[in-house]
Design a protein that fits this description.
Elements: H1 10-17, H2 25-37, H3 42-62, H4 68-88, E1 101-106, H5 114-125, E2 129-132, H6 138-147, E3 152-156, H7 163-176, E4 183-187, H8 189-193, H9 197-201, H10 210-230
Parallel strand pairs: 1-2, 1-3, 3-4
Helix pairs in contact: 1-3, 2-4, 3-4, 3-5, 4-5, 5-10, 6-7
C-alpha cells in the first residue's frame, strides 16, 4: 500500500464526519480534494474520513438525532464521493500469476451496505478482482458463492448478530462455496465492539479497517495458494 505523505488531524476528521448531513456531494468532494492536494493518500480518505462519517450517521440515527431520510441522503452523498474518487484514482496493480478475487457483502438482513462498498473500493485499488453485493438475501449470497470460486469473502456486520447465527451462516458458505478453500473475513461495527466474535463465528480473521483487511487477506490467500501448490 502507498505510504501516506500527509496526515489528517483529529479535528479535521471530526469536522468532516458531520458534514454529509448538510453538504452536497460536490461540496464534500471539494473538501476531500484539498486533502488529496496536500498529499493525503486515497486509502486514508476511505479509512479516516469516509468510514467514520458513515459510522457517525448511524450513531446519530440510533440516538434519534436525525431521521432515516437524513441518514439515507448522507450515505448517498458519501457513496457518490467515493465513486468519483475511485474513478479518478489509478488502481494499484500487482504482478501475480492469477488474480486474487474477493466478494464483499453485508450479512443478510443488514441494510447497511456502505462498509462493504468502501472495502470493495480499497481492495480494487490494491489489485484484487473485487465485487460487492448490496443487501443480499441469504439464498442469493450462497448462490453466488456456489457459482463462482472467490478466494475471499468479506462480511460486514453492523447490527447485533448472535455468534451462533453468524457461525451457521459461515458454515453454510464453506459448504456450498465453489472454492473449498475460501477465506472468510468479517468486520464492521458489531465486530469492533466485540473483536472476539470472528473466532466464535468460525471466520478466518478480522481487521479494524479496510487497509488492514487488505494486508491480512493478502497473507491468508498467499498461505492458501502455497499450501495447495505443495499438495
Amino acid at each position: 500500500m502507498t505510504e501516506p505523505v500527509s496526515t489528517l488531524s483529529a479535528e479535521e476528521i471530526a469536522r468532516f464526519a458531520a458534514q454529509p448531513l448538510h453538504l452536497e456531494a460536490s461540496e464534500l468532494l471539494d473538501a476531500i480534494e484539498q486533502f488529496l492536494s496536500r498529499g493525503v493518500a486515497v486509502e486514508q480518505i476511505y479509512v479516516e474520513l469516509l468510514a467514520p462519517s458513515a459510522r457517525k450517521l448511524g450513531e446519530l440515527w440510533e440516538a434519534d438525532e436525525c431521521d432515516f431520510v437524513d441518514v439515507t441522503m448522507g450515505l448517498w452523498r458519501l457513496q457518490e464521493v467515493m465513486r468519483i474518487i475511485a474513478m479518478r484514482s489509478p488502481v494499484i496493480l500487482h504482478a501475480v500469476t492469477a488474480p486474487r478475487t474477493a466478494l464483499f457483502a453485508p450479512v443478510p438482513g443488514d441494510q447497511h451496505s456502505f462498509g462493504a462498498l468502501m472495502i470493495d473500493e480499497v481492495f480494487t485499488r490494491a489489485g484484487w478482482e473485487s465485487e460487492v453485493v448490496f443487501e443480499p438475501k441469504r439464498p442469493k449470497l450462497l448462490e453466488i458463492l456456489a457459482r463462482r470460486g472467490f478466494d475471499l469473502l468479506g462480511l460486514t456486520v453492523t447490527n447485533d448478530c448472535p455468534s451462533g447465527d453468524l457461525a451457521e451462516l459461515i458454515s453454510a458458505i464453506r459448504s456450498v462455496s465453489r472454492n473449498p478453500e475460501i477465506r472468510v473475513l468479517i468486520g464492521g461495527r458489531a465486530i469492533n465492539i466485540d473483536p472476539t466474535l470472528h473466532v466464535a463465528a468460525g471466520a478466518d480473521g478480522t481487521a479494524s479497517d479496510a487497509v488492514s483487511a487488505v494486508v491480512l487477506a493478502e497473507q491468508l490467500v498467499a498461505e492458501t495458494r502455497s499450501a495447495l501448490c505443495q499438495n
